[in-house]
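Audit log entry. Action: structure prediction of a protein-small molecule complex. Ligand: guanosine-5'-triphosphate. The ligand was supplied as SMILES and no pocket hint was given, so placement is left entirely to the predictor. Protonation state taken as written. Sequence taken verbatim from the request; no trimming, no tag removal. Recorded inputs:
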Amino acid sequence: MILRWFGRKKPEEQARKDETTAPLPEPVVQEPIVQEPPVPEPVAEEPPPVPEVVPEPELPPPPAVETPPPPPIAPPSEPEEREDTPEIVRDDLPVALTAEEEKPKKGWFARLKDGLSKSSSKLTEGISGIFTKRKLDDEALEELEELLITADLGPTTAAKVTAELARTRFGKEVSPEEVKATLAAEVAKIVGPVAKPLEIDAALKPHVILVVGVNGTGKTTTIGKLARQFRAEGKTVMLAAGDTFRAAAVSQLKIWGERTGCPVISRDTGADAAGLAFDALEEARRQGVDILLIDTAGRLQNKAGLMEELRKIVRVIKKVDESAPHTTLLTLDATTGQNAHNQVEVFRDMVNVSGLILTKLDGSARGGVLVSLAERFKLPVHAIGIGEGVYDLRPFDADQFAKSLMGLPSQ
Ligand SMILES: Nc1nc2c(ncn2[C@@H]2O[C@H](COP(=O)(O)OP(=O)(O)OP(=O)(O)O)[C@@H](O)[C@H]2O)c(=O)[nH]1
Ligand SMILES: [Mg+2]
């Protein structure tokens, strides 16, 4: 049976209420696996006994992790030595859970609109500038196309959307409101086909989700947010700290594990990531958990060794379950604009990316990139991140996104 996570249609307030009040089931916590020397062909281990723990009643805020923006993508043909990769110091992560998680007070649409306000104000101000008391002539269309390109909608989308406006309104006086409404409808048409809920196959124990992406794009944070949502739905979740490259990456995931009541399988820094993934999958199978979320290292795109590591993770987990990973999520940071296109190309060729999650749509003026990604790659967009909080990941809704992007009300 396929359960559609994100698929429920409810009034916003009710949905939020359900989510915040849903009791988390009793989790089991797995002691981290003690590091073993890297093994080329990993072998399953007997796990230690599993203690019962009571989950935190409330979710404290996520760790304040400072990550520099992802570097520009270099062609994969320029391998660098792994040893040369600069270590990002993130050892200042909080270790104690103190404050309560701030639950969102505003409805989802309001928060989406707030989040996209930088992108939408650029567009709406531009549109008002072009169309106030003006006929839709060639010059106005050219200016509009230019504006859409600078808002990261991409040249193809900009041309298509502008042509549609010209088809119906050319030579007529159009108001900024009419232009915005037409553009929102066109954007919704383009992104509609890719707005697909993340489907979890309940028959799989576990459904394996591999999370990949350039460093700093939000892989670990997205895993934490997803884990909370799955747990709130009563599913059992296990996390695998596949970013064995940095000690801080493991501790960051462990914090998310504590916060969401999910066991975290980890090894020490430098351990073989594929071996860890193998162990985690065996353990998840043994415990019969519903979902295994595997975190991976960033900086893969210009490091042949690390790229190979990602492929090896996939190869090795297939030895346990030929159909795994069942979902491969690519996280993309919306603030990187058109660079996200290169990232999709690189990761799509490397692993079989099954869907996208656009993060950091809040505070970015480049939210339009989602439209050009949809147009070009047609990959499902499962969810969008609009903040660092555990509640700031939501299913991608084409209509709401298009309206928010154009600064229009939801109705
Ligand atoms: N504003 C905002 N910040 C986000 C969002 N998602 C993640 N972040 C922040 O982005 C930073 C990087 O997120 P991580 O989850 O550590 O990214 P990562 O891909 O795991 O990074 P590496 O482990 O270095 O590869 C953190 O400070 C997060 O809090 C989002 O949707 N909005
Ligand atoms: Mg990470």
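Audit: result stored. Confidence is low (pLDDT under 50) at residues 6-100. The radius of gyration is 22 Å.
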